[in-house]
Amino acid sequence: MPETIEQHAAYDSKIEGNIIFTKVDTAINWMRKNSLWPMPMGLACCAIELMGTGASRFDIARFGAEVMRFSPRQSDVMIVAGTVTYKMALAVKRVWDQMPGPKWCIAMGACASSGGMYRSYAVLQGIDNLIPVDVYVSGCPPRPEALLEGLMKLQDKIAKSQSAVAHFDSEKPA
Amino acid sequence: MNTVLSILKDRFAGAILDHVEFRGEQTVIVEKAKARDILRYCRDELGFDYLIDVSSLDHLGTEPRWEMVYELYALGNGARHHLRVKYSFPEGEKADSVSEIWPTAGWHEREVYDMMGIEFEGLADHRRILMWEGYPYFPLRKDFPLAGRPSEMPDVAFTNRAPLAGGPFVTSPTSATTVHREPRSREMD
């Protein structure tokens, strides 16, 4: 047995012999949840906290979600950070529609979750009126820790999803 | 500062209806017919080279309904003078655009039109500025409900009523009970 294999392998190679036993779902979910690429839909002051979350002090990279893409086609989690006005609402929907699946949505802060303090003619009363939301983060604006907690909740949700089944179901002829 | 007032009173004797001084701020209430001339004179002769803001008031239930407010400021020669000019006019009339005097007034007047529905005589670009073209209401009017009204512009935008249960607390002066004075929400429709 060469010395190098033992040094570099994280598993017990003597027993497992370079083979990991797992479920397809678990493997896919593990890859997905640790490499979420956010679409930063920054619309108001929550976006400043989102930037803070991405910066060095809070470091969203610890959770594998540091690759903020400003193209919806390269993103898989939309973080709606801020007040969604009716004027902006269909644009947000359009960006969401351009994101490839599987995709998730975090409603960051009171406004994105429910309209917040804006019970107003101009503000959409929660982005869940237009797109499905996976995690709601409370706060006005939420602190970076709260957003990271929301991100971890989303990771838990992804870890529990039946990705392979969903994939093969979508391949079935109707 | 009172010299500005006396100059205006000399020059436009009949058109200066009233003036108010509050903590050093001067407000003159003028006749609508002469308003544009007075504002032009303020800029050309009195040095009010900076138009801070144009806004409007809705005195729903009293006549005349509309009131325009112009906030002027003099920056030149180290002077720091502020002057507020107001005039009122009834529903159905148009306001006078001052965008020829201060080009910046164009956007302010578009906002007044967008929010209040007051139209302007002589405004070249008479589009909405905050809401989208096709939005059917003027949301800052007093008879527009706080919660908004449903509307639909396909592929552009839609609006719905906001739920107001539980607030905001809109008070109104009345001798009736607290329930009437401070309802959970007040519907205007």
Q: How would you describe what is shown here?
A:
The complex is a heterodimer of chains A (174) and B (189). Chain A is α/β, with parallel strands linked by helices and 174 residues long. Chain A has one domain (21-163): Rossmann fold (3-Layer(aba) Sandwich), CATH 3.40.50. Chain A is 43% helix and 10% strand. Chain A has helices spanning 3-8, 13-16, 24-33, 46-54, 86-98, 109-114, 144-160, 163-171; strands at residues 38-42, 77-81, 104-108, 135-137. A four-stranded parallel beta sheet of chain A has the order 1-2-3-4. Chain A is globular. Chain A starts with a helix and ends with a helix. Chain B has 189 residues and is of the alpha/beta class. Chain B has a single domain, classed as Beta Polymerase, domain 2, CATH 3.30.460.80. Chain B has four helices and nine strands. Chain B has helices at residues 2-11, 32-44, 105-116, 178-181; strands spanning 16-22, 25-30, 50-58, 66-74, 81-89, 95-96, 120-121, 151-153, 157-159. Chain B has a five-stranded mixed beta sheet with strand order 1-2-5-4-3. In chain B, strand 3 (50-58) and strand 4 (66-74) form a beta hairpin. The mean pLDDT of chain B is 87. At the A-B interface, helix 5 of A face strand 9 of B.
Entry keywords:
heterodimer; A: 174 residues; alpha/beta; Rossmann fold; 4-stranded parallel β-sheet; 8 helices; 4 strands; globular; B: 189 residues; Beta Polymerase, domain 2; 5-stranded mixed β-sheet; two-stranded parallel ribbon; 4 helices; 9 strands; 21% helix
Set down the secondary structure blueprint:
The complex is a heterodimer of chains A (174) and B (189).
Chain A: H1 3-8, H2 13-16, H3 24-33, E1 38-42, H4 46-54, E2 77-81, H5 86-98, E3 104-108, H6 109-114, E4 135-137, H7 144-160, H8 163-171
Parallel strand pairs in A: 1-2, 2-3, 3-4
Chain B: H1 2-11, E1 16-22, E2 25-30, H2 32-44, E3 50-58, E4 66-74, E5 81-89, E6 95-96, H3 105-116, E7 120-121, E8 151-153, E9 157-159, H4 178-181
Parallel strand pairs in B: 2-5, 6-7
Antiparallel strand pairs in B: 1-2, 3-4, 4-5, 8-9
